Every structure is written in structure tokens, then in C-alpha cells.
Give the backbone structure.
Amino acid sequence: MKKLFKTILNTIPRPILIRLSYMARPVLAFFLKGNTYTDPIDGKSFKTFLPYGYGNQRNNVLSPSTLSLERHRLLWLYLKNETNFFTKNFKVLHFAPEQAFYKRFRNLKNLDYTTTDLNSPLADVKADICNLPFDDNSFDVILCNHVLEHIPDDTKAMQELYRVLKPGGWGIFQIPQDLTRNKTFEDNSITDKKERAKIFGQYDHVRVYGRDYFDRLRENGFNVEEVDYTSKLTIEKIDRYCLAKGEIIPLVRK
């Protein structure tokens, strides 16, 4: 069955795969039930997670129940265990809301929760991240994860994020990051989709962020903490939750 899922993931276009995966989620969860791995978002356990990725797939990373990836589960654990996100009254702006989080965050009574994106059907406000329709100092918390790598003018986007965040507010801006690379790489002359996918990880990514990502955020006004939350977890928990050891959570403050 695992080989069958892998074949499906390799051959079906991603937009169609996403729709099918949500319909098939209860079936996947039923057949993969077990006790080896646990999705901390819903607490369900499985004998294996599913493979996922473009080109070079990562095995055992996609939760059959919430369809979360490593970064989603890491963020959930961090928010749950290290912040008051689930208990304090916050006005929250969530860019490109992830399906694993959307309904759960929407149902939290302590949050005044707004979603935004140019194309997502889950967005309350259709908006360009480089030209946001919100007043200065509007939000206590901003979640903007795996968005900036798609934005040609990420400096302008960072400036807008800083503008609409309240003084004293905080945010998490995860990105796909190559921690072995000191400098961010981008090359607009590469236009072939297959070549872009090979170099940037996805055809619609415009750069590969290096360790200088944190300084780019600082240059646009943010105080930045580079949080390696996995360093606080045991190897057993990292393995059970199928996390990426050493992944950095960019925690920003204004």
C-alpha cells in the first residue's frame, strides 16, 4: 500500500492531489492506523506516515490524518508548549492558512482570527502581501509560513509585515531554508520550470534562503530569535512526531 501511495503522489498533479487527499483522508488514516508515529496536532497514531515532496521525495513525513508535514507539527508543538497562543486573547493574521491549522485556529475562542492570501479559498481577505489593506499596528500575532520564498520582492513583503504588526507583537515566518548556505540564492534568468524545481525546490519558488534570512528580517526592523525547538525534545519524540531535527523556527518581534 505504501508503494501505491508513493506512485499516486508521483503521477497526479499537485492541485488535484490535494483535493483527492482530503477526500481520501479518512481511508488513509484507517488503513495506516498503528502505534509507531503520532501526529501531535490531533493525537492520532499510525504505523507509518506517507511520503511527500517534489522530485526527491521524503519518506514518512505526511500525516494521514491532518496531512501535516514536519514543519506544521513542529510549529504546533512550539505554539502549544512555548507560547500562550491557545489561551491569550490575540488578534491574529494568518497568511496562506494551512489546512492542518485552519479550522483549529478558527475555532479558538481567544483569537480574533483573519486569514489572507491572493488565491486561497480559505482566505477571508484577498490581498497582496506587498500591499496589505490593513492599518499600521493592527495585529498581535502574524503567521506567515512558506510564503516569502514565492515573493519576488520579499523586502517589500517584510516591510508590510512589520508595518501591520503591533509594537510588542510577534510572528513566525517559516521558510524552506538551506542551513548549510550562508547566503540566499536567487537567479531570475532561470525560467524553465523543471530547472527551477531542481534548483529552488519548487518551480514557483524564487529563491533558496540561507542563514542570512534572519539578518534580512532584522534589516527590516524585526527582532529575531532563531529557535531550534527540536533541541528541547528527546530523540524519541522527534522520531515519534516525524520532525526534522535542527529545523529553525524564525520567531520575530516588533
User: Anything to note?
Assistant: Residues 2-67 form one domain. Confidence is low (pLDDT under 50) at residues 5-17. The chain has two domains: 2-67, 71-253.
